[in-house]
Every structure is written in C-alpha cells, then in structure tokens.
Amino acid sequence: MTSARAAGAFRPTAGALRLVEAAAVRPRSVDIGGYVKRMTAHCPYLAPSAERGLTRWTVYRADGDAEAVEAELFHAGVGAAERLRSLIRQPQGFLRCENVVLLGEAPGVGHRELLVWPHWALKNLYGPVGIMVGKFHGGEEETSRAGDRLPIAPVSFLPVRAAVRRRDPRLLRSTPELAASLALADDGRDVFEGIPYDWQEIRTWTKRFLPRAKPSTGSGTGSVGP
C-alpha cells in the first residue's frame, strides 16, 4: 500500500488545495443530494451505497496556480484510492465510493483541464488493482458510454470506487490493456513501485498509456458511484 509513502512524500505544491469538508456522507459545503438521487437511474450500485452511508464526499477549494492544483488533485485522488483499498474487502466494500470535489478556480484554467491529467494518471495507476476513477465537470452536460444523457453535476469531482469486473471493462474500450488488467485485478501491491512519486514525473510516465488521441476530457467512468 502507498499510504505511508504518500504521507511522507515532499510536495512543494501542498496548500494548493484547501480542505473544506472531509469524508462527508451528506456534505454541508455542497448541495449534492438531489444530484445523487437523479444519478441512481444510471448507476445501479449508487442507491444502496448512498443508503448505507458508503458514498462519501471530500471537498477541496483551489488555492494556487493550475500546475499546483493539478498536482494536489492527483495526491487527493491517491489518498481516496488508498482509503478505499483498505476498506474494499470489508462487508459491502464493493459499494464504497470516495469522491474528491473541486471548488474554486485556478487562474486561467477551467475545471475540465484541471481534472484531465490527474484522472488519467489515477485511472492507469489504480485500474490494475481493481479501482475505477472517473471525472465529472460541474455545470456541464455529459453522456454515459451508452449515450444516455446524464444529470448535470452541480460540482466538479473525481469519483473513486471499487471496480465491477463484469461491467467496467466495457467502459475502457479505448484502453484495451487497462480493461484486461482491470478484469484480472486482485492484489495489494504498491502501485508506485518503481515509479517516482513526484507529480511531474508521474504525468510524464502516464503519457505512455495514451491512446492515439489525447485522454478524453469527458466523463471517465460514466458513473458517480459503484
């Protein structure tokens, strides 16, 4: 697991995201309840997850330049993924979902651009160990992989959830190697083994997994929860 390594890593960008609210089932800092209810029509595991208090929201506010906010979004996503890994084998662990919410702005860069590279890196790091990472952009219309129009998210966020092996590989058609590794994922290894922890080096490393086109700035998993 990477939690100790993450906690001890030197991060010159620390502080570019300010914690507003941590691990809230019903967050007070953002109005998310109505959106979650509407999304249950598109995510079969979301309703039981929310009803059991297993979908949680950690809210941050941008407080830095774009590069620093991007780096801290990545680190926040790592924290969410590692928390999930520690809980996923517990009863109903497959229903757990940790959501990283972004409020505020970075000068000159919108949320769509801020989320794309942290999402891509997290998706490729954690897919092979059975964790799905998606992205949603506040106020924007988005569609599912099946072409269904999704409810408009009131905030931008990265959902981090347990993979559903019989379904999720179909969401990764543009990255067949990742889809194959997700279908077989079942290990507790350190995802950073042999990989530098510095964000810029991670971003360079993750470019090797790009399909022919740039990673999509649309919805990553088409799901807010499990």
Characterization of this structure:
α4 (66-87) links the parallel β2 (55-62) and β3. 42% of the residues are buried. The chain is 33% helix and 15% strand. It has 226 residues and is an alpha+beta fold.
Topology of this structure?
Layout: H1 3-8, E1 17-24, H2 33-39, H3 46-51, E2 55-62, H4 66-87, E3 97-103, H5 111-126, E4 131-133, E5 156-162, H6 176-184, H7 199-206
Parallel strand pairs: 2-3
Antiparallel strand pairs: 1-2, 3-5, 4-5
Shape: globular
Portion in strands? 5-15%
* SSE class: alpha+beta
Order of helices and strands: HEHHEHEHEEHH
Which spans of ≥5 residues are poorly predicted at pLDDT below 50?
Answer: 217-226
**Describe the biggest sheet?**
5 strands, mixed
- Helical residue percent band: 25-40%
State the gist of this model:
By secondary structure, this protein is an alpha+beta fold. It has helices at residues 3-8, 33-39, 46-51, 66-87, 111-126, 176-184, 199-206, and strands spanning 17-24, 55-62, 97-103, 131-133, 156-162.
